[in-house]
Design brief:
The protein is α/β, with parallel strands linked by helices and about 350 residues long. It has helices at about 10-25, 40-50, 70-85, 95-100, 110-120, 155-160, 175-190, 210-220, 225-230, 245-255, 260-270, 275-280, 285-300, 315-335, and strands at about 1-5, 30, 55-65, 90-95, 130, 135, 145-150, 165-170, 200-210, 280-285, 305-310. The chain has 14 helices and 11 strands. Strand 5 and strand 6 form a beta hairpin.
């Protein structure tokens, strides 16, 4: 099982600590979020990470093509590739906090597809004709991988069709995994590629602390933010949400903030959604809790797990404690487990 994490880069010191921990505990990927107004610029942070980290894949997790044109992001990831050859990933999504926090609209699926195709071309050093001119990054040394993030069937299918990999924020239950990866598989098959060519990373919020109650209290601030990816403006009935929670999620969607804080935590408890969302979206609690929950995610069919640690009690400490006390046990327990076809690629 491959396990990585991504974080909001609040300070240079945090970026440096996370880079070292990814090496120290052999995480497979380290990602930097693009969330303007909540944290530092992701490309500054990713450059800091790339200068220090020597082993993990390094991803922008994720940016968008609204606030950063695809040609600009292509040049940026090609630049990062020179700092960490063979280890860089450009993760792109519709927007969420990356767009809402500056008052912009999210990308459409088609505009993401167009941007992914542009990026995949130019990072190989080849020109891309936009119809209005030619985009080129002729100095690109080696191609980065371009991943597409989505939580909805149309976007997941498109990601499977065009992207080098897919980042999914939909849920850890077995039916959530089957539903999301079935959509990806349709896209992969439509592209004529073998399923093993397209790695799938499932996202979960993670907080690992000695005090499990503290982790659960803190996670209440970010779970509504994460739920926004799943439901968006869609009917919860179509998003794998059981009937008792649907009205609450509609109200949550209307009132939550993309700048997580106590108001989100209060809202989650007011609507009675904490237990449901924490089970669906999180790996939370003591190291023993996190170990059991990670094994449950593996049993649900997840082979690549990407932790969001952005709004934990202490992001760096969560990564350290999980890496020290949980990750070795998970690897030992799952080391001989065979990957399914949909996710055998790197």
């Amino acid at each position: 099982m491959k396990i990585g994490f991504f974080f909001w880069p609040y300070t240079p010191a945090l970026c440096e600590t996370m880079a070292r921990y990814a090496d120290d505990y052999r995480y497979d990927m380290i990602g930097v979020a693009d969330t303007p107004g909540n944290a530092m610029d992701p490309w500054v942070a990713a450059a800091l990470v790339a200068r220090l980290n020597k082993t993990a894949d390094i991803s922008i997790c994720v940016t968008n093509f609204v606030t950063r044109h695809a040609s600009v992001s292509a040049a940026a990831i090609a630049s990062l590739e020179q700092l960490a050859p063979g280890r860089t990933i450009l993760g792109v999504g519709a927007g969420h906090s990356g767009t809402k926090n500056i008052g912009a609209r999210n990308s459409t699926v088609q505009s993401m597809v167009n941007g992914v195709e542009l990026c995949k071309t130019v990072v190989q050093g080849r020109p891309f004709d936009t119809g209005h001119g030619s985009v080129q990054v002729p100095w690109a040394k080696s191609p980065s991988r371009i991943f597409m993030a989505s939580s909805h069937p149309k976007g997941l299918e498109a990601a499977g069709r065009v992207a080098d990999g897919v980042i999914v924020n939909y849920g850890l239950h077995a039916d959530n995994v089957r539903e999301s990866e079935a959509a990806i598989r349709r896209g992969v098959e439509a592209s004529g590629r073998a399923p093993g060519e397209v790695p799938v990373w499932q996202v979960a919020g993670m907080d690992c602390t000695p005090d499990g109650d503290d982790a659960r209290r803190k996670s209440a601030a970010v779970l509504p933010f994460a739920a926004g990816y799943i439901v968006g403006d869609k009917d919860p009935a179509t998003r794998g949400v059981p009937e008792p929670y649907r009205e609450g999620l509609i109200e949550l969607r209307r009132r939550y903030s993309t700048r997580p804080g106590q108001q989100n935590a209060d809202l989650l408890h007011e609507l009675g959604l904490f237990d449901y969302l924490s089970r669906r979206l999180g790996i939370l609690g003591t190291p023993e809790d996190c170990y059991r929950q990670t094994l449950a995610a593996a049993e649900a069919g997840i082979d690549r797990l990407m932790f969001s640690v952005s709004v934990t009690v202490d992001p760096a400490e969560a990564v350290r404690l999980y890496g020290e006390q949980v990750l070795p046990r998970v690897r030992e327990a799952l080391g001989a487990r065979k990957l399914p076809d949909v996710g055998r690629a790197r």
